[in-house]
Amino acid sequence: MHPYLIQLGNFPIGTYGLMLAIGFFAGTALAKRQGKLDGIGGEFIPDLAITLLMAGIIGAKVVLILVEMINGRMTFSEVFSLATLRAGGHIHGGIIFGAAAFFWKARKAVGHTVAQIGDALVPGVALGQAIGRIGCFAAGCCYGTVCSAPWSVTFSDPHAHELSGTPLGIPLHPVQLYTFAANLAVMGLLLLTRRRRRFTGQITALYFILEGAARLTVEIWRGDLDRGAWLGLDWLSTGRLTAMAFVAFGIALWIWWSRTKEEVPV
Predict the structure, then answer these.
(1) What is the pTM of this model?
(2) Mean pLDDT, residues 88-93 taken together
(3) How many domains does the structure of the chain reveal?
């Protein structure tokens, strides 16, 4: 694959970073379009998206550092190392911090509720995640287990091993592409459901449920499960733990917002 897209002198342009940028703009455009359907105009959605991007980047790094330090794979002196700065971090850490920033900022919106803004936003979040996973595939991070299927992928770029510990010369499940497909499926289901939602906030709640369920499924083929084991259980990776929390959070939102019976914008 191609962790580095081009080299400008001594400065490499990473493919992951480029796809992250494309995902951000594509997701923001979709969210802005969805927002207009509910009467959320102006620059509120783009401004919110920038806030979530910053919170997401910080959250992904923070959770990465915490997990690595708790599991004894990182010392405090390594926190600000070049390898840490280059690492993408834990996606669910980004979503957790982004969600916190969303609820904080959306509550200050004038004329629109948190549930209404969330319904407009989450399909774009899923799209951004999908495009970002193409960057993961190019970089070789978030790699899969050994695979004998015809669609297996073999990484050969030494930079992928250097940056992410990606096994080279071994056929692996293209788990990044599995996640890409899952994120697109989540986006599609959210958009289809949004047309016939029964209460405001239903799409936001459904996003967390579907994202958690998709991650629990994809984790079956993840090969980098040294990302942290919890409660003494080898199978309880950080990804599975946060995925279960997402499902529970989504169910809680669904119950709460379905009882408030906020009118769906027409």
Answers:
(1) 0.84
(2) 68
(3) 1
